[in-house]
Amino acid sequence: MFIVLDLLQxxxxxxxxxxxxxxxxxxxxxxxxGGGGAILLIPVTSWMLGAAAAPPVxxxxxxxxxxxxxxxxxxxxxxxLTKYYVPSAILGAWLAALIFSRLNANWxxxxxxIFLVSTIFQYKFGKVSKTFNMPxxxxxxxxxxxxxxxxxxxxxxxxxxxxxxxxxxEKESLIATKTANSFFMGVVQIGSYTFFGxxxxxxxxxxxxxxxxxxxxxxxxxxxxxxxxxxxxxxMLLILMVVSGLIMIIRNIDILF
Length: 257
Fold this sequence. Notes:
The chain has eleven helices and no strands. The model has no long low-confidence stretch (mean pLDDT 82). It starts with a helix and ends in a 5-residue tail after the last helix. The chain is globular, with a radius of gyration of 17 Å. The protein is mainly α. Helices cover 75% and strands 0% of the residues.
């Protein structure tokens, strides 16, 4: 208790208020557009806390958020897909935490950004629902790759959307299954961050405040989602992927020059 009070005295109030509001807004958007809350938070948390602190803070907040979202969307989870994704994702998250401080992830963000922007053309501006057939077994290598990269850079939610869409998931089922997969991966991410000494008391406090805002955002976002049609959700999905991709490209374009 005294440690928390001491910490609060060293942290500007606007930092905590800003993180709470940012978490709430980002995860309202995340619910109604199929993810991306973590990516939207990367510029804000990097600016407020520094680039090195952003990934663990965001992943901690996302883990808290996912707990509430699983409760809200429990009946829509496709567990048959989760069993393929989670085991390899756990391995990827643990390995990434091991090399977290030794790898420059800017190239990863740039390439992911380009892929996300391209999705609006792949889906013909929302006119088609699938662009390729995604077998469930394909989520085994996908889980490893996405967990590895997201542990390094703090969030890659939108990059999974095309794969879930091409596996036949829409709206609530997409949100629910994606959340369940992320939650189990988050257990390993938080555990591995802790094991390797990356979660300080201040990081925990920042993550908890950001996560609380995200929980409120989930509750509000679910109400908006219920009133959306499948086609409206798909358009929002594409908009979020393109915006997230542009953010990643702009933030990392300087590595090309």
